[in-house]
Amino acid sequence: MREIRASDEIQIQELTPYLWEVVQHGDMRVPGRIYTDWHGIQELADEVRRGQSWNALSQVINVACLPGIQKASLAMADIHPGYGFPIGGVGAFDTQEGVVSVAGVGYDINCGVRTLRTMLSRSDIEPKKERLADELFRTVPAGLGSKGDIRLSMHEMDQLLVDGARWVVEYGYGTPDDLEYVEERGRIDGADPDTVSRKAKERELQQVGSLGSGNHYLEVQWVEKIFDQQAAEAFGLFPNQILISIHSGSRALGHQIGTDYLPFLEAASHKYGIPIRERELVCAPYDSPEGRRYMAAVRCGINGAFANRQALAHHARVAFRQVLGTPSGEITTLYEIAHNTAKVEQHEIDGEQKEVVVHRKGATRAFGPGRRELPEPYRNTGQPVLVGGTMGTYSYILRGTLEAMHETFGSALHGAGRSMSRRQASKQFRADRLTRDLAERGIVIRGHSKKGLAEEAPGAYKDVQDVVDVMHEAGIIRKVARVQPLICVKG
What we know:
Elements: E1 3-5, E2 11-16, E3 19-22, E4 32-35, H1 38-49, H2 56-64, E5 73-80, E6 87-94, E7 99-101, E8 112-121, H3 122-125, H4 129-139, H5 154-163, H6 165-171, H7 176-179, H8 198-204, E9 217-226, H9 229-235, E10 241-248, H10 251-271, E11 283-285, H11 289-324, E12 332-338, E13 340-349, E14 352-361, E15 363-365, E16 384-387, E17 395-400, H12 402-407, E18 411-413, H13 422-428, H14 431-440, E19 444-447, H15 450-455, H16 464-473, E20 477-490
Parallel strand pairs: 4-5, 19-20
Antiparallel strand pairs: 1-2, 2-3, 3-4, 5-6, 6-14, 7-11, 8-10, 8-12, 9-10, 9-20, 13-14, 15-18, 16-17, 17-20
Helix pairs in contact: 4-11, 5-11, 6-11, 8-10, 10-11
């Protein structure tokens, strides 16, 4: 068993070649557990040794100090520093003694991915790739401050925050069949619009059905490799198949909810005597008036994001119909799953079923076989896990495992994970050259911002194959298919 010391206090032990434990010390209530390899754990320890104040390893430790945390403070293989929680962080908290935290949810509440299936093959797309890219760029609202085509009154906004994607389906965008393949079926209970500020609602009124900016994207992809034929058949996948993946969240709504509740939960932290180790780690007991109010607002943000992706799926279907004549009914939802949430779930802890609040910050739910929350066709296989890579490499479709249910509260990685900051990337990469290089490899890029393209250059991220392999070898997920981009629309 190998050991690493990041400092006099921080000792890290190897549990397996792909799982490392930060030994409990100081105020830690549980150990920290990080899914990575030898190289990855060395990098995390080096950040501490160099005196880098904003580092992911310290954030894993800080989360382990929060009241009511269960088993361990967890980090997936795409770990990198976030606000309070590391990106890739998972923390489950007892509903009686535990807390809810802004840091464990983030500002883009319920950011997630929907992947749509088609019966088209790569050869059907190639001759019309440029035209399709132009139509998607025109049809799908994207970019900073972008606006969708759904205009809501304040009353309608309140209804949307309660009903989520169902409201958008009733509006005429998509069908009820879509909802069967969305986490929570596109609507989570317990949302209360009265807990959301008027400012948050006003900012969102014209943004439903818009992609946004940053790392959000719409990609047309093709299935390059099948790893698990049985699971691929259950998911409706075949070689060279065309898929559409949409990565977006709750837009201005979620950001304003986070902004509004940061000082609210800071006051609650002081009221309940909870030490604040990093600004966004402010929290309140789940079973308190403040905790219940924050969770009711988070659930509104969750429903807002479900609604947004449902509308975006409609826009993608329209573009395919315009260019390729593909009927909307032939573009079906494979799955939609989120990676910025706090949700109450049932999990086995110490041999007993227990209700816990699972925070997943840049981590994806990855339920294994048998969970009733999954659509019936996927129940024997395990949940589809949608992992985005970069616009120049790969993305993956994985499946959850029973090991994930035992070890990570049914959670896995959500992407490649950044290896450099946006500021560093914008200095190192140039959008024009990036677009040209990708075009030479057959990938068409349409972006609303040169700066945004540079920030999202493939070189700014870890190797997605490496991080997926870590989680696969650890048994938390199983690889089903690898896909490559043909078209990428960025905000």
